[in-house]
Amino acid sequence: MRNALPAWLTDEQLSSDIVPMLDQGDAVSLEQLAAEAQAATLRRFGRVMSLYAPLYLSNFCSSGCVYCGFASDRKTSRRRLESNEIEKELAAMRSLGIGDVLLLTGERTGAAGFSYLCRAVDAAAKIMPRVSVEAFPMTVAEYRALAECGCTGITIYQETYDPENYRELHRWGPKKDFLERLEIPERALQGGIRSVGIGALLGLSEPVAEALALARHVRHLCQTYWKAGISVSFPRIRPQEGGYQPAWPVDDRFLARMIFAFRVGMPDVDLVLSTREKPAFRDGMAGLGITRMSIASRTTVGGYHSPDGAGATQFEVSDNRNAEEFCHALRSKEIEPVFKNWDPAFNGPILQEEVACR
Q1: Where are the alpha helices (DSSP H) in 78-226?
Q2: Rounded Cα distance, 332 and 342, in Å
Q3: Are 37 and 269 a contacting pair, CB within 8 Å?
Q4: Which residues pair with 81 in a beta bridge?
Q5: Separate counts of helices (H) and strands (E) for the chain
Q6: pTM across the whole model
Q7: CA-wise closest residue to 236 among 197, 210, 264
Q8: For the segment 209-227, what is each residue's pLDDT rounded down to a tens digit?
Q9: Contact 250, 219 (CB under 8 A)
Q10: Strand, helix or coil for residue 277
Q11: 158: phi > 0 → left, psi -120 to 50 → alpha, else beta; which?
Q12: Which domains can be identified in the chain, with CATH numbers?
């Protein structure tokens, strides 16, 4: 049985430069960090913001995460989108201009397993230039098959990098294995997935320790798979069915400092901010480190084609602006919204000889 943590997770040298930037005692002032992050963002990414939208395919789940509105013990109606419904959702999203979709499910179940996800990816890839997935862990062979269906990337949050907290927060189900979860980004890259997004769900554990562990994870992936695209998300706990209250709430000031530190320390990595955050905070971070945002998000199954009857949400959205309103806010800051930055010609698994780079 595996019980040893990977060496990179405890390698303090991988995060040593991030430590002083996270010090809220103003070892480095927030204003100075913001200026450095803005300059780094402009140099590497220019005045653009890449946009995507999530599409919830199913809220069936086999795990018991205490912080999730879709946990298997929640008394909520369960459903999945059928093929005709997926097509309607995708068409509704395309009408908003969206060309980059993130398909989501709960943990693997009989109702929404691998074959179901493959069919959904195949349908989406016929309509959307870029399709990525946030779903259950898979084998290397399954990730390769998913890439062959048209999936270009996955998002997989470790949730928390504290092994003890992880065990307590994941009460049952396949997600309970901390070390297995930690392996998923590399398994996906070995399977030919071209980009991986990772993150910690802020509020579950002590935030400085989480930030440093996340930085080590990013750098390990960047060093080992330097031809792959790596992105980092900064989700905070939001109200959800079950009423979980974060033990370590993260305020705006620390979250901003964390984003700035990652941008200064990792100038080539995409940093992502979702509609979990309020409009004022999202607008403030645009151009100051964040280079990718979700737009017009629905966290219900079937929320785009039938927004009034879509059912329970996974969590509450804070930024409810429509696509037009959000794009206007970006342009008012001289940032151009980009709905498509990926050509379908690049779809398909990355060649095996390109995967392991070191």
Answers
A1: 83-95, 114-125, 140-149, 163-169, 178-190, 207-224
A2: 25
A3: no
A4: none
A5: 11, 9
A6: 0.92
A7: 210
A8: 999 999 999 999 999 998 8
A9: no
A10: coil
A11: alpha
A12: 7-355 (3.20.20.70)
